[in-house]
Amino acid sequence: MRTKRKPTRLDRVFARLDREPERPAHIGMPRMSRHRMVLFGATLAFYLAIVWAVVITSWLVRLDWQVMFFRPYQQWPELHAFVDYYVVLGQRGPTAVMVAAWLGWRSWRQHTLRPLLALGVSLLLLNVTVGAAKYGMGRLGPHYATEIGSNEMWLGGDIFPSGHTANAVVTWGILAYLASTGRARRWLSALSAVTSLGVGLSTVYIGTHWLSDVLLGWVAGLLILLALPWFEPLIARTETRIFALRDRWRARRGRTAPAAVRPVGTPVAPEALTALGETPAPEPVPTGRATTRSHVYLAPGPHTTRAERTPVTPGGSRRPQHPERHPRGTSSATRP
């Protein structure tokens, strides 16, 4: 007796994907609600507070120097190999490629460009805002510090806020932003927060960032995710225009492609063939009933009509000789 194989979790996942060939109707675009506005304002205030604390060389700068003199990479050298690989989760190139591959497959499955467009908008905002803050404040890193206890601001550096931390928040947080269910959104939000903080602390362990750089980078990435609903109308209009361009391109291909194929039996003027670069074929000459008969291979030579041909007399009758048959007009012998 053969038993039915119990489907595994992977089988159920693929079965669910097969049932969703198009964009699910329950996935809505996030809106800038009052709760999100309050959260965005509080996060922006925290961002400005961190910048002000570093500018006035407050206790946060003293904490930066204490952590730097502690030298975590010397306190726990056994973690160095792991941290070198873990910090890659915050590099823009590898993380953007991995997340774009997943969102591209999801866009193809659901027939929508919103996941890829949302990723592109978030990365653009990340480059503009974080890059401007880096070069605007010009803070030097721990390895290039010039004076003990100073904030190292406006000295030509580019490490405040931490780009690794902000990039980890945005690239992994965009998965939570585009999640289709509330449970998945909560789990992915917690996972992206822990991953981005771990990336930031990894840079502090190596000694390439101050602790305040990591805090500001985490807040900067969160601000970008909170501001994404403001750009949803732009994403929708861009998606509509891209699909409209695709439809026009397909329609143009549909009009021009069949022009090279002519239906059998459709008369075409010789002038049109000459304009297309083709040589018109000679018109066939009808010969009696030959038009209704199939084509045969004739011997080479000039063709003559039936009236011009020389009559040929057969050499004899095609009927076999019969010994008992006599010509007409004569009497046959009486049979015995």
Short overview:
The chain is mainly alpha-helical and 336 residues long.
Can you describe what's shown?
By secondary structure, the protein is mostly helical. The chain has helices at 9-18, 34-55, 59-70, 72-75, 80-86, 92-110, 114-137, 163-177, 182-206, 211-227, 232-256, 270-275. Helix 7 packs across helix 11. The protein is globular, with a radius of gyration of 42 Å. Residues 17-21, 257-266, 272-277, 288-301 and 332-336 have low confidence and may be disordered.
Q: Which bin fits the share of residues in helices?
A: 55-70%
Largest sheet: none
The parts where pLDDT drops under 50 for at least 5 residues are 17-21, 257-266, 272-277, 288-301, 332-336
Helix and strand pattern = HHHHHHHHHHHH
Overall radius of gyration: 42 Å
What is the end-to-end distance?
Answer: 94 Å
Q: Which strand-content bin applies to the residues?
A: under 5%
Total helix count? Answer: 12
Structural class: mainly alpha
Mean pLDDT: 78
Total beta strand runs: 0
Give the overall shape: globular
Can you lay out the helices and strands and say which pair or pack?
Elements: H1 9-18, H2 34-55, H3 59-70, H4 72-75, H5 80-86, H6 92-110, H7 114-137, H8 163-177, H9 182-206, H10 211-227, H11 232-256, H12 270-275
Helix pairs in contact: 2-10, 5-9, 6-7, 6-8, 7-8, 7-10, 7-11, 8-9, 8-10, 9-10
